[in-house]
Design brief:
Distance between the termini: 71 Å
Helix content: 25-40%
Oligomer: single chain
Strand content: 15-25%
Number of strands: 26
Length: about 725
């Protein structure tokens, strides 16, 4: 029996994590330290034997479970628990120190059971549901040997032409904060070391959603005020409220400084100001791209910049193993800095229980279980946004015996329903909308006419012979995601014309848009009897759509991003600052969602649908808005109350939204900002008092130097059902 006193401290799970980290780092050679800073696919080593030898030498800190940086659209080979365990066993049992590899994979919106794309999840305005879906995704992924996901993405985006807008939570920093924290807590759970938890990663740090023109990887030029008050807010919340374990740098440069070389971001903000103790991973090849940006002298200098800025791990194995040792010898980086960065990696490995439980015992019961499928179906329905309805929806018994045509390019699609970054679930596992509609129609005594022809003339012939038409338009999942920016923001070619052709049949018709983003569809807005944004909602898209169309579930989603009338309005978002030549309060409070600007053609600047907008199958009224105090000191809080009444004839759900205006400040502030929301379900005729508590976090802002301020003066608050609400109830901070 071995003497317990000879067991290294880092192998003693009863020891504090920091002591274990320090002990292990003290035992490592420089080569082993550099190995921990490397993430690879395995293919970089040339063949399987070379990869296994690298594991034995301690030269691999992490493995990423995809084949390329474009796996979100190109797909990726599956993962094998047996293979991952084999390689882990080599790292743990055949290397000198036995440090396990952390296996990462893009579990962006589900694993084998695919949930709605993140932008659609934001439309739910339901953080708890987002937390639950991430929890189930973590359970599935961890059952197949995944320890770490590269999500959530919390890039604020106000240009929907950027393909990766679908991976984030929309245009508003408050909504993004709440969703980011929920997703982090879902992935990591209450205990990061639990067998059904995985480590989350806040990305892309920071400003990627502001790439110029919506062109992927392009530079951004973000002012200091916008950076602190908008861009950084979700990241701060993920770190300080969510306890996120890792952070990923972005590809782009801001103000000429690549994120992977930004000491301001990675040291001053992330570590010194927010107290982050996890580790930073570059995006794929982003360390080398410091050179491509022209922000250093060569590849070796790029490594110097990234290491000194604070990038712990390079994705993918390329430059760190090649140059770190030489840079230390040249005293351009220090081994103390390397120790600090390696400590961050090991800290997370200890915290997520890898040293105690390095191997995965496959658990098929956690894969595509009844619970995960039900959750996917429920969330998909709750994400769908009803933008127009003249009463045709939900379909009722009045359709019995009638003939309903289901037509359009999305009727027979499978894989695209999953959305971009679906790596874990093959498209053949998805049900088509046509299959779901045929079954639902038969169950309800409705005659369904679903043409197999892809030719529009045949589809329109069906439409002309039917009583009601459901037209399913949309985009392929490969039209969104990384490298899929577009100069146009509307339905794919010909689909607007198809909407118009259906209009000319004279039949009542419903337009369902199945896409990653909510496109402007003027023909549907002007002529359809209903317009439903159904998104790319994952595994259960088709079933959830039937639940909504036939009234089993209410579409309680609300738009997380403004829908422009046309591309020329972009960027268009509700939280704009005051323009020039508007000289009184009433004109200031009448924003471009209401009356247009006095000096512009108002129709040209009105969006098709505003942020926060969405209908249900009943109606609501918000009234009686008041505050509990009209004057407060800066440290106090204000409680805002309003009365919500279900004025319709059926049970329904409202998303009550609270907006705040800082009337006068030392800098121009947004005309209104979302500071709270509540999702409330009421029976017909019932009412509820909805409260929001506003504190310094809601009322304050950052100045250009990053200082947090709460200035005295007048504030106004408003409560309503979308962002067109006018904040009009005043209170004063003294």
């Amino acid at each position: 029996m071995s003497d317990v006193s000879t067991v290294p401290v880092y192998k003693d799970s009863q020891m504090p994590v920091e002591r274990r980290v320090a002990d292990l780092v003290s035992r490592m050679t420089l080569k082993e330290k550099i190995g921990q800073m490397v993430q690879c696919t395995g293919a970089e080593f040339g063949d399987e034997k070379a990869y296994e030898d690298a594991l034995r030498e301690g030269m691999v800190g992490s493995r990423i479970g995809c084949d390329s940086q474009w796996a979100g659209n190109e797909g990726s080979r599956g993962i094998s628990v047996e293979e991952l365990n084999l390689h882990q066993r080599i790292a743990v049992e055949e290397s000198r120190l036995g440090i396990p590899v952390i296996n990462g994979r893009d579990i962006i919106h589900g694993h084998r059971t695919v949930m709605p794309v993140p932008l659609a999840q934001a439309a739910s305005f339901d953080p708890e549901e987002v937390r639950r879906s991430a929890r189930l995704a973590a359970s599935e992924a961890s059952a197949e040997g995944i320890h770490w996901t590269f999500a959530p993405m919390m890039d604020i985006c106000r240009n929907p032409k950027w393909g990766r807008v679908i991976e984030g939570f929309g245009e508003d920093p408050y909504l993004a904060e709440e969703m980011a924290v929920a997703m982090v807590k879902g992935f990591q759970g209450d205990d990061m070391s639990a067998p059904d938890s995985i480590v989350a990663c806040a990305k892309h740090f920071a400003g990627y959603g502001y790439c110029e023109g919506g062109r992927d990887y392009d530079a951004s030029e973000i002012t200091s005020g916008t950076f602190h008050n908008v861009v950084l807010r979700p990241f701060k919340a993920a770190v300080m409220r969510g306890g996120v374990g890792t952070v990923m740098t972005s590809f782009q440069s801001n103000g000429g400084i690549p994120s992977s070389a930004s000491g301001f971001l990675l040291r001053r903000m992330l570590r010194e100001t927010w107290g982050f103790r996890g580790f930073v991973v570059s995006d794929w090849g982003a360390v080398g791209e410091i050179e491509f940006h022209g922000a250093c002298q060569d590849a070796k200098d790029a490594v110097r910049a990234a290491v000194n800025a604070g990038v712990n791990m390079e994705m993918i194995r390329s430059l760190y193993p090649r140059y770190i040792e030489a840079l230390i010898n040249e005293r351009r980086i220090s081994e103390e800095t390397i120790d600090e960065l390696v400590s961050g990696i090991l800290r997370i490995k200890f915290m997520c229980g890898l040293f105690e439980h390095p191997y995965t015992e496959a658990d098929p019961s956690r894969i595509r279980s009844a619970e995960t499928l039900a959750a996917s179906r429920r969330q998909a329905a709750h994400c769908m946004v009803l933008a127009k309805n003249n009463g045709i929806l939900p379909f009722s018994d009045s359709l019995k015996g009638k003939r309903v045509a289901l037509i359009g390019p999305m009727v027979h699609e499978r894989g695209p329903l999953g959305g971009s970054w679906n790596l874990g679930s093959p498209g053949h596992e998805f049900r088509t909308i046509g299959e779901a509609f045929a079954e639902e129609a038969e169950k309800r005594g409705v005659s369904a006419a679903i043409t197999d022809s892809a030719l529009w003339d045949e589809q329109l012939r069906f439409a002309n012979r039917c009583d009601v038409v459901v037209l399913c338009v949309g985009e392929h999942s490969n039209s969104t995601g990384e490298t899929h920016a577009s100069a146009r923001y509307r339905l794919p070619v010909g689909q607007d014309e198809l909407v118009d052709a259906v209009r000319r049949t004279g039949r009542p018709f419903v337009v369902v848009c199945v896409s990653g983003r909510p496109f402007p569809i003027p023909g549907a807005r002007d002529h359809a009897d209903a317009l439903l944004y159904a998104w790319h909602c994952g595994t259960e898209t088709a079933n959830a759509l039937m639940d909504v169309l036939f009234g089993e579930q209410e579409p309680s989603g609300r738009l997380p991003i403004t829908v422009p009338e046309h591309e020329g309005q972009i960027p268009i978002y509700y939280g704009r600052k005051m323009p020039g030549k508007v000289n009184d309060w009433e004109n200031r409070n009448a924003n471009l969602y209401d009356d247009g600007w006095p000096y512009y053609n108002g129709e040209d600047f009105l969006p098709m649908y505003p942020f926060g907008f969405g209908l249900g199958y009943t109606t609501f009224d918000v009234s009686g808005i008041c505050v509990d105090k009209t004057e407060i000191p800066a440290w106090d809080t204000v409680t805002v109350r309003s009365r919500l009444i279900n004025t319709g004839s059926r049970r329904g759900t409202a998303v009550v939204q609270c907006y705040l205006t800082d009337v006068r400040a030392s800098v121009s502030r947004p005309m209104k900002e979302l500071v709270g929301f509540r999702k409330v379900t009421l029976d017909p005729g019932c009412e509820s008092i909805v409260e929001f508590e506003l504190n310094e976090e809601a009322m304050g802002f950052y100045d250009a130097d990053g200082n947090r301020l709460l200035e005295s003066g007048e504030f106004r608050v408003g409560v309503g059902l979308d962002s067109t609400v006018r904040p009009s109830v005043p209170f004063f901070v003294r």
